[in-house]
Structures are given as structure tokens and as C-alpha cells.
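Intended use. Records like the one below are meant for learning the mapping from a protein sequence to its folded structure. Do not use them to infer anything beyond what is encoded.
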Amino acid sequence: MMVALAIAGIVLALGVPAFGGFVSEQQVQDRAEALLHALDVARSEAIKRGGRVDVCPGEGGCAAGALPWEGGWVVVPDASRGDDAAVVVRERASSPGITVRGNRPVADYVSYTGAGRARRFEGGLQMGTFTICRTGQRTRKVILANSGRARIEVASDRCP
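Structure written out for the chain above:
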């Protein structure tokens, strides 16, 4: 009985920290998949509606200014109209310690035209990379391509 308890204690001592790392890794992956899903939904809605659909950080839509993406995001038809009742998707905030940052073209918002292309409000091409990080975990990147499609890339480097 004592030997069995000792072995169980050793297995638990080795397994619990590894499980914590696994959970952290999955939380980062969850954020990347949630952002990818929001971009896919926005593109589909824009094509379906034949008009602009936007993905904006925070709760207030794209007009609220540059908010951090880890605070959550919303998918709204034509955010320039300011119609909060038309929210298509609302995503919760990230777990503490996870950061979501977009490079310059996608730092403030992502906007799709009725043709499914990502374009800035002023009409310029919009493609870029979101970096999702948690200290010690592998970086996830959500890459928005020229076509308006997005994909997830798991980078080999670790978050600082």
C-alpha cells in the first residue's frame, strides 16, 4: 500500500505541472481559433449581405478607438453606422496573461467588403498578422491574407 501511494505521489508530482502547461497552451490556441472564427464569420456575412462587415476590438465597435484585442471583439455590419443592435458575434475577453496584438494594418479593426475582400475604411488593401501570446507558450499567429482569408500558424518561438 505504501509503495502504491509513493508511486501515485511521484506520478502526480510529475504530471500536474505538465498538465498546467497543456492548459495554458490550449487557452492560447482557443484565442487564435476564436479570432479566426470571427474573421471567417465576418467575411461570410459580408458576402451574404453584399455590404461591409467589420471585426472590431472591445465592446463599442470600431468607432471606439484603438482598444486592445484581448478585451474581446465584435463582428458588426458596417461599424461606421454605429448600430450596436446589429452585433453578429460578440467574443469574450481573453484569459489573464494572454495578449492579442495586430500589426499596423489590423491593429484597429478588420473590415470586409461585399466581395469578401479585406479593405480599410478608406479603401486600401488590408492584410496583416495578429500575434497571440502568453509568457512561456508558443506564439500563435492569425494571418489575414490578401484574399481576405485567414489562417493560424503556430510559430516555433516562445512568447517572452
